[in-house]
Specification:
single chain, alpha/beta, 6-stranded parallel beta sheet, 12 strands
């Protein structure tokens, strides 16, 4: 349902942005960025799970998440995987994995449209968030993005996620990961829309 809505919007003329522009801006705010295909993405996920010593992963179901066989990878690596739940599961999660609606090249942000609370928990609660984006969904700038958004949505919550969580609220000292993930990993997947 939600995917179909975005597919329809991207089938219209959308001013696309380049992966290189997106990557440069995302890395400038400490985001780890990969351009990969489905097959290689599975290997990258395994490496990330191992590197982060993941014991518990939460994910929001989508066609791209399904195509990556995260459930099989987690099972093979003896990692607990939750596709639904609440605060309890989100609080114990080492990694959250969710598909983003698009990426914004102008700022290096990923855009999440999420009516379900679970999707917001997946992207905000674990220490590491892996954001998946179809390569054909990199939008050039805010103007192009707002052209996509100008049609009224029934409901939902739109988040612009730019880098890991950071704040300087505490004595004006920059602190990473206080209000959200301390690491943001964006995997731009070629051929993920199939």
């Amino acid at each position: 349902m939600q995917t179909a809505l975005w597919d329809e919007r991207f089938s219209k003329k959308v001013e696309k942005g380049s992966f290189e522009d997106f990557k440069r801006r995302a890395e400038a705010v400490s985001t780890e960025v990969y351009l990969t295909n489905i097959k290689d993405a599975k290997t990258i996920l395994q490496e990330i799970f191992k590197r982060e010593n993941a014991k518990n992963i939460i994910a929001f179901k989508s066609s791209l998440v399904d195509n990556l066989d995260i459930d099989k990878i987690a099972k093979d690596m003896n990692i607990n995987l939750f596709f639904e739940g609440g605060k309890k599961e989100a609080n114990i999660a080492d990694i959250g994995i969710s598909e983003m609606e698009c990426a914004l090249a102008e700022t290096g942000s990923v855009i999440e449209w999420s009516y379900p609370v679970w999707k917001r928990l997946v992207s905000a609660m674990p220490g590491v968030h892996i954001a998946l984006v179809n390569s054909g969904r990199i939008v050039k700038d805010f103007e192009a993005l707002f052209d996509l958004l100008k049609e009224k949505f029934e409901s939902g919550h739109i988040s612009f996620i730019t880098g890991p969580s950071r704040t300087a609220d505490i004595e004006r000292v920059l602190t990473i990961g206080v209000h959200g993930p301390s690491k943001l990993i964006v995997m731009v997947i070629e051929g993920g829309e199939q």
